[in-house]
Amino acid sequence: MALDGATAGIPIPEETLPPAPVRWVGFVVGPAAAISIWWTMGAGVNAGELAASDAAPGSAAAATLSREGVVVLALMAWMACWWLTQAVELATTALLPLIVFPLTGVTPSIRLTAAPYANEVIFLFAGGCLLAQALERHGLSRRVATAMLSFAGARPTLVVGTFLLTATLLSAFVSNTATAAMLMPLALAAANEARRTAPVQADRAARVGVFGTAVLLAVAYGASIGGGLTLIGSPPNAIAAQALRDAGTSVTFASWLRFSAPLTLVFLPVAWLLLTRVLLPVHRLALARSASRDDAESSQPWSRHAIFTTVVFAVTVTLWVGLPWMPAPLPRLQDGGVAVLAGVALLAIPLSRSPSDTALSWRDAARLPWSVLILFGGGLCLADAMDRNGVALWLSRAFHHLEGAPEIVVIGAIVVSILFLTELASNTAVAATACPVLLALGPALDIPVERLVIPAAFAASWAFMLPVGTPPNALVYATGRIPAARMARVGLLMNIAAAALITMAAAALL
Question: So where are the chain's domains?
Fold first, then answer.
């Protein structure tokens, strides 16, 4: 579950933000761009004039925007600039529609403007975060991690693969950032053990350094890969799902898995081979495994709270996967209602004679990533306004040169563009901006929208090159064990592999 920035309570180093001059430039350029767009396109346009959404694609009318459409376009440029440069907090930028749209008449009231901020997908993500907090608080995620690592033995390639697989499985339900933070001490311990026990030889330091890099990158990359596995795994997944629902395409937990599971199953061994055989060839080292505090912790008896959390988790996943086939009235809950049900169970059901002895307290709920939820709302609000006022269709005209190109070429071009853009910008912000444009582009190019939107969501989450690409990247880079140049070199080929696999999976499975 990918959270932007330090939303999981894990501090992200300040140096992973854009430099202060870049942020100051973005702070000024954002509103300046909005004013410029309004000045050049909005002058003389009256409210209620024909919007691009009312016209046939490619017609003369489709090249124009209504007054409200120009306002939405101007605000989109402002928000995109602030999101890209992180001039202010991402969630602060996401609040701008609540001010601008009512004042300019894009929406008649703040009540209608604020409706997307309470969308079902936000409750789905909030409930998923509560479930993840319970898994972390009662040590279940750490038990899974240490149990899997105990099977790795002393083979370096197997150790790297175990970290990669463990991070992938955990981050499907637990925050990507928290997953990386939880596994990083274990990865550092493995790297230190290799340094201590490796045989003395001429290239000993180089071999140990390569192994340490591979282990740490396996944690970061596994956390990002696992974020795409489930509908709650990453904010772009939920944004894409809601965009498709708004377009009339049903997306459920189970239907998402039908695409994500095969893609992840193929990408994991590819990533493992790239890390251990191609990019960072891990030679056999004499790794001595010793008992650790984590092993001792994982052998402790299970508490009532841990058992109850496990039951809630199992029931929740069962409902998410099997909801379409369950008897009424359960399907009415949909995925968001199931997530809220899990959250309420963890917060409300007492596990002893004390009514307050619950698996989670409201103090835990207060630690929800509210900034990400607001970012969700702002992105959905902007996307809704772009669709209603024809801005998405107007922007999609920029891609009309792709008309007639093979479908796989169009998908590949979109995936590559978003994948490298998200190296610099928030993955949630990129998804929120791109989805409405892709929804309009699909019909214009006669391509099913799910073949554009779902691959874009994966591309927005899978950034492997730069420390600023994802919070897990930033965390492992902050250890000082991975040079930025090496991360970029390894991440570039990972990006290329990811782009190719996402494109082929979209063509084959969607």
Answer: 9-116, 119-138+303-368
